[in-house]
Amino acid sequence: MDLPWGDPRSNKFATSIGLITSNGPHGHDIMACEWTHHLSYRPGLIAVSLGPTKATVENIRTLKEFGINLCATDQTILASVAGGYSGRDYDKINALKDLGFQFYQADTIDVLMVRGASLSVECKLFKEVKFGDHVMLIGEVSEAIHDSEKESLIYNNGKYWSLQEIDKPHKDTRQNIRDILKKHSKHSQQ
Ligand SMILES: Cc1cc2nc3c(=O)[nH]c(=O)nc-3n(C[C@H](O)[C@H](O)[C@H](O)COP(=O)(O)O)c2cc1C
């Protein structure tokens, strides 16, 4: 069965928003990508799932490198512009500069990065995997800088949110969990 865009079941996922920066036939571009996932620690691999018609996909296929900038809570305008217009039709980078946002040249790739993101990762294209109606572009991390003052913006149910910490189970509850798990262990107790 399908799980379409906007379906209340699809809307249950909560994600961060990757601002994917690229360069290529469409010039410097930026798009919003809720489907941005950390896949591996060693080496650092991050996947982005993109609709195949996005200008960003053509850019990444050409240059074989891209930036992933996790949108911070004070960057909702960035997410809406990057996600609401295509680089086929608009120079979003210069529009965003006019809106007061700043970009800087990446160290290891020929792509612009977003100033003030919670995490900025430079990636070389590691693999492209086609599935369903999206393509997964996996990037190998070549540089990563985080800003400890910034929190990542959260996306859920088509809206922007900020994180709120919830207490882990109380230590008595955790002890009770350990006792119960011990009772159900699949290995004999020595
Ligand atoms: C919050 C948000 C999240 C989005 N997430 C994705 C995504 O995960 N994958 C995708 O293909 N498009 C996603 N989009 C839509 C693209 O960002 C949008 O189509 C954009 O215009 C593509 O830009 P480009 O054509 O310049 O590459 C999202 C849009 C918004 C507003």
UniProtKB/TrEMBL annotation:
Is Kinase among the key words of this record? no
Gene3D superfamilies named among the record's database cross-references? Electron Transport, Fmn-binding Protein, Chain A
Q: Which cofactor does it need?
A: FMN
GO MF term list: flavin reductase (NADH) activity; FMN binding
Q: Where is the Flavin reductase like domain?
A: 10-162
Which UniProt keywords are present, listed alphabetically? Flavoprotein, Oxidoreductase
- Provide the E.C. number(s) assigned to this enzyme: 1.5.1.36
Specify the superkingdom.
Archaea
- Top enzyme class, one word, equals oxidoreductase
Record-stated family? Belongs to the flavoredoxin family.
Provide the protein name: p-hydroxyphenylacetate 3-hydroxylase, reductase component
Biological source species? Candidatus Nitrosocosmicus oleophilus
